[in-house]
UniProtKB/TrEMBL annotation:
A Pfam family reported for this protein in Swiss-Prot or TrEMBL: FtsX
Protein name: Putative ABC transport system permease protein
Keyword vocabulary terms for this entry: Cell membrane, Membrane, Transmembrane, Transmembrane helix
Residues that span the membrane, as ranges: 21-42, 285-310, 334-360, 372-392
UniProt GO MF annotations: transmembrane transporter activity
Residues in coiled coil: none
One cellular component (GO) term of this entry: plasma membrane
Organism: Reichenbachiella faecimaris
Family: Belongs to the ABC-4 integral membrane protein family.
Domain ABC3 transporter permease C-terminal as annotated: residue spans: 289-402
Length: 409
């Protein structure tokens, strides 16, 4: 018997036992579904995380005051550095001409009461001040109304953007806040826009009001502010290079001596996204392990069914051997049957895994993905399972004695 005949006989045998084939393929399909489904869902969640951090300005770096570390390091007291001044950060923004978007901003207070008519918030809301690029660099969107205009920034107009919690605290449900006036820190402001809800990671803006930077400096009066510079990087692969250029420019502005420690902090705002990426990596390993265990059970079930098939077809094997079939051809036939069954189950499992995975990721993260890698992986795993599960029954069939097999009832 040649290979074509073996394939024909294997397919004929599968069709002759449709119920057993369907049940066996279903076992494999369940295993592949769990594997592809879990990995697809994790990919969807990962994509959602990446999109969220892109919206939150994850491809940015920030220059801010040097954080003082208490105590001593290697027996030497830590040096303290002066805070970044408005003139220094303004000079940096004016001279950092690398084609990236820079923003200058500060926090006036984190303990403000915001008032609207008789409604008053708790004294734990923030007053933030930023320039024209602040919303873009931080990834904040205006849900209602508009952003603060360049004219209002330049002239220090008393206009304000409010966060989602400010809106829900001061205004009734479905009440329009735009063009209404609120007051805080002894001044009255006209609301020009409402910021979109940021959620857990960007929650600082939910409990804040945002005013032009010139107004923030006025509200601080004679009190010094801690200024920050945010730089949005279009191409993340240039992050290290651009941070290096920014460090050199700021050291020159601050007059830090060559080779000395930086008198400011510069850091990438991607650390949290990377940590969450590591968590999803662990989830992927866990999902793969669960899927592998499920497939292991499915492969054992397939092996058991194939062993039963060998026993049932002992007489058939004896006839084939009597007609000149070699042990190699017998093994080949049973391996082909096993692989075909697993590929039928694998195809169904991949389709179901794709659907189930996207349903889960859509419910949890509102995303849709086409996991080509995991789908191809599912087919490959199905073939490997077929080979491993079918080898022992095929080997057993090839070793049967033709005389004994012909006498089998």
């Amino acid at each position: 018997m040649n290979l074509i005949e073996n394939i024909r006989e294997a397919v004929k045998s599968i069709l002759a036992n449709k119920l057993r084939t369907i049940l066996t393929a279903a076992i494999i399909a369940i295993g592949i579904t769990s594997l592809v489904g879990i990995l697809t869902a994790i990919d969807g969640i990962q994509n959602s995380i990446n999109d969220s951090f892109s919206n939150l300005g994850s491809n940015t770096f920030v220059i801010e005051d040097k954080r003082e570390e208490r105590g001593k390091k290697s027996g030497v007291s830590q040096k303290s550095y002066s805070a970044l001044t408005f003139d220094e950060v303004s000079q940096f923004v004016d001279n950092y001409n690398v084609g990236e978007v820079t923003a200058l901003y500060t926090t006036v207070t984190r303990n403000a009461e915001v008032k609207y008519g008789s409604e008053v918030t708790n004294p734990n809301f923030s007053v933030l001040g930023g320039d024209i690029n602040y919303l873009y660099v931080e990834g904040y969107d205006v849900e209602e109304g508009r952003s603060i205009s360049a004219f209002e920034h330049q002239n220090g107009s008393n206009v304000v953007l409010i966060g989602n919690e400010v809106l829900s605290t001061l205004f009734k449900e479905n009440e329009r806040a735009v063009n209404k006036s609120i007051s805080f820190l002894g001044s009255k402001f006209k609301i020009v826009g409402v910021l979109a809800k940021q959620g857990t990671e960007g929650g600082r803006a939910d409990r804040a009001v945002v005013v032009p930077l010139t107004v923030a400096r006025r509200l601080a009066k004679n009190r010094s502010l801690n200024y920050r510079v945010g730089v949005s990087v279009k191409n993340p692969t240039k992050m290290d290079h651009l941070m290096g250029e920014a460090t050199g420019l700021m050291k020159a502005i601050r007059r830090d001596t060559p080779g000395s420690e930086d008198s400011f902090d510069i850091q990438e705002k991607k650390s949290l996204a990377e940590r969450l990426g590591e968590i999803t990596g662990y989830l992927r390993i866990g999902g793969f392990t669960i899927g592998f265990i499920t497939l292991l059970g499915a492969s054992i079930g397939l092996m058991n069914i194939m062993l039963v098939s060998v026993t049932e077809r002992t007489r058939e094997i004896g006839v084939r051997k009597a007609m000149g079939a070699t042990p190699k051809r017998i093994r080949q036939q049973f391996l082909i049957e096993s692989i075909v069954i697993t590929q039928i189950g694998g195809f169904g499992g991949v389709i179901l895994g794709f659907i189930v995975g996207n349903v889960i990721s859509n419910l949890l993260a509102d995303t849709f993905v086409v996991p080509w890698l995991w789908m191809l992986f599912g087919f490959l795993v199905g073939m490997i399972v077929g080979l491993l599960s079918g080898y022992l029954p095929a080997y057993k069939a090839s070793k049967l004695d033709p005389i004994v097999s012909l006498r089998f009832e």
